[in-house]
Amino acid sequence: MRTAGNQEPGKMSGSRVIFYYDVVCPFAYMASRLVEAMAQRTGADVVWRPVLLGGMYDLIKAPQGKSGSATHTMSPAKLKMQAEDLRRQLARRGVPYRDPTHFPQKTVYAMRILAGVKDQRTRIALSHDLYRAHFCEDRNLGDPSCLREIASGHGVDVEALVQSTAASQQLRHNTTEVVERGGFGVPSFYVNGRLFWGTDRMFFVERALGMRGVAPERLTTPPSSGGAAKLSFYFDYSSPWAYVGFMRLGSLVESVAPVQVNIEYVSILLGALFKETGTPSVPLTTMSTQKQTYYQQDMEDWCDFAGVDLNFPDVFPIRSVLPLRATLASQCDPAIIQTLYLAAWRDNKNIGDSDVCHRVLQEAGFDADRLLCDASSEPVKKQLFANTSRAVSDGVCGTPSYQVNNRNMVIWGQDKQSTVEDLLCGWSDISTAAKL
């Protein structure tokens, strides 16, 4: 973690964080390697609370079902992006990893054993060994002999806990508890009445513990020699996350100075991209109620962190074809991009309506007549189509997405800005996890 600005982080003593996990999940594995260091930094007590991920899916009626994986519902482009991001984040944090042959595994017995272990230290140590067996040694945790061998080193009676009604009830209680608190996946963290999901949201957990100066971790500092770098920024006005990402570009450029960043704004039609990649036109509507609610709160957290004003528009999804073409007609003038983004996502103006779009541009001092006239030209239409085709070809699965120095690598999501900043400063992404 890094400290943002000049704020001095302060610990909130006596706080407790509940860490909900299942040994089936690689992201929860990564969190298990980081959560104890977080506890030391914040002075908080961390309670490891095992849950059954499939049981969570069953309770929230997740589309993948209780026996599936969230990856089963992803488009090939998103699946590839997530796999690359997992490896990248593991490598950035120095966490050893090997792709498991058996995935997803049935972990009901493993999690029942962990739920039945009363001693917290034993539960933590056993959890680490089970994670290591799964994600470093490629062992099958669904094999009773494997569980016996691992658990015996901790003095745990596997047969007794597997058959234990109390352990089964405890696991069911933990799983129901996290769902009632808004959970839908692991890792989840519950602190001060708030639930946070994902390893990349652990810095929000620290902020909730009073360390308001904490920000996503950076691995590199800008080279004193400066230099230049190119950043390609894929965006569509229809995405609130792309709006937040665009509004954060100023802080991104500032954070890598004296490196001079040349930003290429690549406007794309997100709906056309989704159609090509097999993604629902409005992904949020296909999610469980818990996940939808969480993402709304998550967006508020990011806007608070970044100092971005956001008011969800009355007209959504936004018909962004016209404003995107007008943007291309302006040669992707960043002032026009900002004007249209603020109108849509701060001021609740329907920029997909031609009259509204014209008025927004005109009132901001731009030649709206010329821009909207040029927006209907064939060269502009072809350019928008070409940009979208380029995005599909490069593996973009959503906006905002970033490319640094035309590398054959796409970073998806404004929440990965710290990774983009490191790349701009010369960090090399080896695209593999730490060596075992």
UniProtKB/TrEMBL annotation:
<dbReference type="InterPro" id="IPR044087">
    <property type="entry name" value="NahD-like"/>
</dbReference>
<keyword id="KW-0413">Isomerase</keyword>
<dbReference type="GO" id="GO:0004364">
    <property type="term" value="F:glutathione transferase activity"/>
</dbReference>
<dbReference type="GO" id="GO:0004602">
    <property type="term" value="F:glutathione peroxidase activity"/>
</dbReference>
<dbReference type="Pfam" id="PF01323">
    <property type="entry name" value="DSBA"/>
</dbReference>
<dbReference type="GO" id="GO:1901170">
    <property type="term" value="P:naphthalene catabolic process"/>
</dbReference>
<dbReference type="GO" id="GO:0018845">
    <property type="term" value="F:2-hydroxychromene-2-carboxylate isomerase activity"/>
</dbReference>
<protein>
    <submittedName>
        <fullName>2-hydroxychromene-2-carboxylate isomerase</fullName>
    </submittedName>
</protein>
<dbReference type="GO" id="GO:0005739">
    <property type="term" value="C:mitochondrion"/>
</dbReference>
<dbReference type="GO" id="GO:0005777">
    <property type="term" value="C:peroxisome"/>
</dbReference>
<dbReference type="GO" id="GO:0006749">
    <property type="term" value="P:glutathione metabolic process"/>
</dbReference>
<dbReference type="InterPro" id="IPR036249">
    <property type="entry name" value="Thioredoxin-like_sf"/>
</dbReference>
<dbReference type="InterPro" id="IPR001853">
    <property type="entry name" value="DSBA-like_thioredoxin_dom"/>
</dbReference>
<feature type="domain" description="DSBA-like thioredoxin">
    <location>
        <begin position="231"/>
        <end position="424"/>
    </location>
</feature>
<feature type="domain" description="DSBA-like thioredoxin">
    <location>
        <begin position="17"/>
        <end position="209"/>
    </location>
</feature>
<dbReference type="InterPro" id="IPR051924">
    <property type="entry name" value="GST_Kappa/NadH"/>
</dbReference>
